[in-house]
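Narrative of activities, Objective 1.

The group set out to show that a structural description can be obtained from nothing but a protein's sequence at a throughput compatible with the screening campaign. Below is one input-output pair from the validation batch, recorded exactly as produced.
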Amino acid sequence: MKQLTGTRERGNAGTRNNRGERGSALVTVLILIIVLTLIGAAMLTVTLTELTIAFNQADAAIARALADAGMNRAASELATNLTWAGTGGPITEGDGTYDVVVTASGSTRYITSTGVRGGGRQILRGSFKAVPRVAVNTVLANTTATIGAATTGLTISNTMPSPDATAVHANRILGGATAMTINTTGATVIGGLTSNGGSISGVSCATWPWRCNNAFGTIPVKQINADSLRTRAITAGRYFQGGHPSSICTQTYSYGLGQTQRCLDRYIHDQGGVIGSTGDPIFFIEPFYFGAGEPTSYTRPTLTPARRAVASNRTGGATSLTITRPAGVVASDVMVAAISVRGGSGVTITEPAGWTLVRLITNGAAIRMGVYYKVATSSEPASYIWNFSLSQKSAGGIQAYSNVDPVAPIESENGQATASGTSHATPNITTYTTNTMLVASFGVAFGTSWTTAVPGMAEWYEARATGGGAGSQVTASGNDQLDAAAGLTGAKTATSGNAAVGVTHLLALRGGGSRVDCTSYTSAVNTLCIRSTPTSEFANSRPNQVTGTVVAFGRGTGTSTRGDMVMENLSLRTTNYTHTSLTGDPAFVAGGRFEVISSGAPAASRTVDIIGIVYIFAGTDNPDVNSNLLGSAGIGMNVQHGANLVALTFHGFLISNGSITLEDTVTNSGVVSVLYDAAVADLLPSIFTTSSTDNVIFPMSWSAGD
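Output recorded for this entry:
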């Protein structure tokens, strides 16, 4: 029994063991299936991920290309339009898009270009410096350029990183075999040399490290609106033009014609030599000129004019009138002539050589009077002849005076035609200095006499034409009066014996005295003097710091651009000078030429820094509407710097409608430099950073992201 029981137990155990083995196998199989499934799923995931990555990489690559396209478009748009602000939203290109946003800061443009395609998104960020093409030429001469003398001391540099960046360009509008002369002994030039035809002499273009091209073509130049500058200066009360009613000369100081420089000197004096320290003002200096022009030098009146002598004559009908020289006239005396002739607007009067027309007054076809002045020399003729275009009756006289300012004798003047009657009044004029000599001239279209003396004045000649009836004759009169006080003179009235139409004129002669000169430019006219030495009259008339724009533009009438500018001998400076104009206008604008002629050694080292643009018209008005320079045969800018220890630096660039000469003329420790680089470009006036055409794009920075 026991044996059977034991056998049964072993059988049961075996049965249990087989079942356990089968269960384990099943679990193993299930685990294996799960593992294999997971591996398969993982492999599938990897495959799908790789496929996704591949697709995303393709999208990202295309998105990057789209972002690049946006950047390229930005450069293209900004090359012709600096105001371009971006695409304004996504632009579809194929099955992707790009979106460009541009922000501006000065001449720098910051660009964000986003490219998107499918699951790819790429962002490129960069900054460009967008500069009008004219602004990448350190020196731009419209005709010819002469750079460097035989001595060292001159540097011209253009370090903008582009083949378009040129150190010197000569437009050579007026022709000539040689457009540019470079003396590398006396000049270090960094940058290209280009011209619009004509040879570039002094260098070997084959070995020049930058572009050297004598057939580069013309370069457009932005217009400067001188009338706008003038208006802004008048509005701001910084307009200097002798006796002009809007001038600071008459608003603040009692200075008249021929006193523009004196007015500016007084203004600088009152500012303590620091002008325009707030804002960016315009200082418009417009010489009022007549005849030979307003001088840079002026007289500080200390003498009282005195009558020297008088002479007169008349005709009964002739093509000329001869008047003898007043007795006793000596050199530097001032003579005033008034010639009255019948025929009015139908007759032309031609004055003798050396005489300057002050004013021509015409009363219809009845009568015309010309008023003239002349500063006597040591060899005056015995008489003077005025010629007429027709044979007419005439009468006139010459009044001569001593102790008159021989350079700018006439302080103010005016004339007018008078209606038919016996009362003939001059205009009321204003004098600006004391002890002026008032000279009144009268003419009436009738053979008569002047029955009543002009109140307050003395009559010194009366001349009546001869021949024919009184109604066809003319009667002239000359009078004067010493005016002790400055201010309004009041009208001067003469009374004729018979009623007729007339012509009248009144002028004030300024007394002579001590001269105030611009060193080395004592005979200059229509020239603004920027002083290195103060005048004896105004101790602070030397500017030391200037912010804004100084314009010397003698527009006067029509579109005349007379008006030079000179920086007085720099070696005489006792202080440094800094001129800054960066926010809208050039530092200097001259209608004529800009001169810097200096030599000698100062007591200590000095610096003269001009930060901005120097823009010279050289006697020709403006570039045309297409920004093409018009061309001038005259000198635009002439720097002959030979002042030991004085460093003259132009931070910016120079533009001239004429020629440009830059030389350091004496071997010394003084230097002259014209420096233009990326730092300067950021500070250029807005007129040169808002061009709509032909800009040069300089990449500055670059970054990418996704």
